[in-house]
């Protein structure tokens, strides 16, 4: 690691998609002397353990708009910042087997359509044509978003980081934040394992580690880490084209990855914490869901897998904004599984908040203090 500068205009804590996107967008806007700190390697937190899905199918208008703007940015990524991210517009398919879910998705789709997202409700037969591996005996309907798709998370991080460096951002990996110094209600410095950086602005994009960073500054960021695991199947001969497919009731999902599939689901028995060890306790639940919804997957061999962390907020919606109690502490965290796909738009948003501009998407309702004010805004379209 190169020597840290003694002074910075902004210190960004966390080198995943949020941190690198924000660094790039700020530097592109002409902000100088930006330092980005990452405790391990870029993308080594939640970002590069993401499933790679990118979508605008949400139930919250802010998430729909952030997703839509990010999809547009992913499509242009080879030109700006200039990196191939293997963006594939394969679509997202939510399978619905409960009447209450159909009603909820009808409402969400109406909102999505009003904001320019071409999603629609389709019947089980069309769903099976789109995703041939599925069984639809108990499926009532499905929500289909043809403009959604997949991208490679590590390539997105690398692209933003490369662009940020070219614009003068100092990126330091293997550098842990150990404290944030304040003078009254103003930030004055960030202490790290490699020295102290004087600054009056900190942007927290530390994902699952954000609560601790917030505490250093005296800001409550109610983010709780939970382990999530995914598996990769062995090669499956004659694998048909398919979208990201999600069985909404069970949260079981899969999409093509190489010559096989990436498969995953939430595990209700998972305790909170930073455990990143893989184990098989959740596999029987996964296989049972696969056997019901896509039997060919249950019969495929398992080649590998990994464990990552979700950063869960109390309402499964992001925390985006600037602290009121501390001068110039901004944050983008708590995305609860949909952070990677919103990285481009959130980078624009934090840039604008820092510069005093009006963001393209109104995120005023996403601040961390919404919980104390009794203004939680649950996002329903999550897995």
UniProtKB/TrEMBL annotation:
Matches recorded under InterPro entries: FAD-dep_OxRdtase (IPR006076), FAD/NAD-bd_sf (IPR036188)
Keyword vocabulary terms for this entry: Oxidoreductase
Every FAD dependent oxidoreductase domain range: 10-352
SUPFAM superfamilies reported in the protein's UniProt record: FAD-linked reductases, C-terminal domain, FAD/NAD(P)-binding domain
Alphabetical list of Pfam families matching this protein: DAO
Cited PANTHER family: FAD-DEPENDENT OXIDOREDUCTASE DOMAIN-CONTAINING PROTEIN 1, SARCOSINE DEHYDROGENASE-RELATED
Name recorded for this polypeptide: FAD-binding oxidoreductase
């Amino acid at each position: 690691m190169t020597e840290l500068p003694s002074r910075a205009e902004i210190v960004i804590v966390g080198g995943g998609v949020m941190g690198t996107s924000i660094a790039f967008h700020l530097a592109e806007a002409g902000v100088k002397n930006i330092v980005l700190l990452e405790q391990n390697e870029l993308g080594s937190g939640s970002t590069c353990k993401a499933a790679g899905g990118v979508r605008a199918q949400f139930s919250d208008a802010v998430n729909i708009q952030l997703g839509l703007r990010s999809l547009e940015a992913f499509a242009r990524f080879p030109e700006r910042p200039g990196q191939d991210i293997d963006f594939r517009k394969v679509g997202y398919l939510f399978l619905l087997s409960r009447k209450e879910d159909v009603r909820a998705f009808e409402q969400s789709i109406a909102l999505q359509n009003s904001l320019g997202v071409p999603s629609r409700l389709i019947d089980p037969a069309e769903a099976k044509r789109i995703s041939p591996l599925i069984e639809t005996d108990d499926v009532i309907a499905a929500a289909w978003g043809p403009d959604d798709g997949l991208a490679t998370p590590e390539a997105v991080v690398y692209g933003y980081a490369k662009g940020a460096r070219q614009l003068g951002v100092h990126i330091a990996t293997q550098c842990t934040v150990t404290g944030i110094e304040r003078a009254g209600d103003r930030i004055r410095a960030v202490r790290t394992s490699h020295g102290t950086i004087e600054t009056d602005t900190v942007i927290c994009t530390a994902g699952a580690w954000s609560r601790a960073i917030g505490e250093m500054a005296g800001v409550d960021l109610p983010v709780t880490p939970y382990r999530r695991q995914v598996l990769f199947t062995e090669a499956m001969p004659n694998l048909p084209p398919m979208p990201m497919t999600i069985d909404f009731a069970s949260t079981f999902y899969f999409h093509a990855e190489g010559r096989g599939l990436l498969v995953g689901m939430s595990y209700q028995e998972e305790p909170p914490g930073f455990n990143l060890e893989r184990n098989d306790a959740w596999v029987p639940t996964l296989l049972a869901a696969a056997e019901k919804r896509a039997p060919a997957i249950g019969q495929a061999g398992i080649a590998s897998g990994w464990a990552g962390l979700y950063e869960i907020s109390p309402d499964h919606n992001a925390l985006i904004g600037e602290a009121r109690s501390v001068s110039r502490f901004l944050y983008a965290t708590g995305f609860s599984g949909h952070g990677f796909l919103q990285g481009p738009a959130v980078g624009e948003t934090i840039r604008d908040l820092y510069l005093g501009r009006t963001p393209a998407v109104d995120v005023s309702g996403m601040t961390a203090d919404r919980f104390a004010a009794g203004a939680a805004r649950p996002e329903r379209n999550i897995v």
